[in-house]
Amino acid sequence: MSTEVRVRIAPSPTGNLHLGTARTALYNYLYAKRHNGKFIFRLEDTDNERSDEKYTKDIIDGLKWLGLTWDEGCDIGGPYPPYRQTEKIDHYERIADKLLQNGFAYLCYASTEELAALKEEQRVSGLPSRYDNRGREVSIEQREKYQAEGRVPSFRFRVEEPQDIHWDDEIKGPITVNSADLGGDMVIIKSNGVATYNFAVVVDDIDMQMTNVLRGEDHIHNTAKQLLLFEALNCKPPHFGHTGLIFDSNDRKLSKREHGELVHIDYYKTQGYMPEAIVNYLIKTSWTPPDDTMEKFTLEEACQMFDIKRVSKTHARFDMDKLNWYNSHYLRSLPLSTVTERARPYLTDFDLSEYSHDELEKLVDTLRGSLTKLSEIKAAGSFFFGKTVEVSDEMKSTVLSSSEAKKVLTETLSSISKMPFDDPAGVKQIVDSMGKELGIKGKNLYWPLRAALAGSTQGPDLGSMISVLGPTKVQARLEAALKNGGNGHV
RNA sequence: GGCGUCGUGGCCAAAGUGGUUAAGGCACCGGGCUUUCACCUCGGAAAUUAGGGGUUCGAAUCCCCUCGACGUCACCA
Fold first, then answer.
1. Is beta strand A173-178 parallel, antiparallel or unpaired with respect to A164-169?
2. Does ipTM come in above 0.90?
3. Number of structural domains, chain A?
4. Torsion angle of alpha carbons A80, A81, A85, A91, nearest 10°?
5. Strand B proximal to A342 Cβ, under 7 A
């Protein structure tokens, strides 16, 4: 019986959901689905200084918004609980104790000050900074002395060096790191009794029987350290794969500090990006489908096609233009009902009861073709709301004041009863044939109508506009324009 | 600085184990469609595959060197 594939996303709740975390989660999800495996959500919250419940919520909400669901996790449980590291602090210490008894680890009494001094010494002499393993051989007397001083020890794991550590990376291929470059014996239990990241991860990955670990390449050295831990704990390590990081156009890693809210999924959510667009974009940044000319695909399709061998080894470049391109695509191709529901929160300034459910869908439909993100719908569609619309004085004098314009408006007003309001093309035809009768066409025909109805000479298709506005609004606006139009006087 | 990873048009990127004119997408430019913008559609411009050496009849693909970018060197994760 072959073992089931088990992968995870293991964020730490020290900030809102990051684009990079979302991308890593996506790849793990894809890998799990492709191999009929399990996707696990584990919370790595051992840094109680920076962790916060509000971040946990943001991360979970963001991932779910993208359409990622997990089979086991801190919010839904599973067969290998707990899925939250702070709930198994004692467990880590027990495992560390075992390592202590086996001689793989020892108690280190070095103080923060001593370690800082060591680091400074190394810096001054131009040496790479590392722990010098001085705590390995401490006499009984010395230890008693430290304890009498009130020093609280940390647990350090012995890193035997030199020693080549290598693995066949699922993305990068063979990688070798020498244990001598790992910074010396590593702390596994901090003096506050809490496991360090590298130790907790290994214990958890063993407990939860992870088979594959896909993460950013900033973890390459951690992987080497963790491999040593797996060995000491006598457990088979998972397969590792490291993706390149995400950079901006200046080769700067995407970070909160440099890019602000742009690195958070939440930003895109509030700006009105479609999760389908973000997912498609994020997957495509460093993965190529088997059909390498394929640009647009859904998460489900990607699950079927995914092949880790086609994940790029290089850095991904964040390209807002491309994301916007994807988003405008999804904005106009997603089911109208979906887009309409998602548009509602951006239209709260208006009285939505002016339109029925179906009418609102038509309204959104006429607008969505010109948007790159949903937040723009408020400005683009404001003219649809209210009995009348604001027309600038300039618009009045340049577009509405001529006698020709007035003729167009008057004539349209009297054609309202003939207009098939549920048929945009039919409405347009009426307008055109009316223009023909009047001998007015092009700008001279359309602009006065646009100005009177929407307050702008640009916008969606005229027939659709009139169709959506409906007879009552059209009449009111034409009348208002005729009455106040000329010179901007009321 | 040590160690590690990566380096194809402005940007992303394809090219199973080396083989005719180095895909495709974004952005850009032009035509068509439209009253206009956008969409859509057609077309265009844009790469001595970081640079230099090799191996080979032949290399983006293999080897060596150089350069560059990034990552990592915590009792943070």
1. antiparallel
2. yes
3. 4
4. -80
5. no
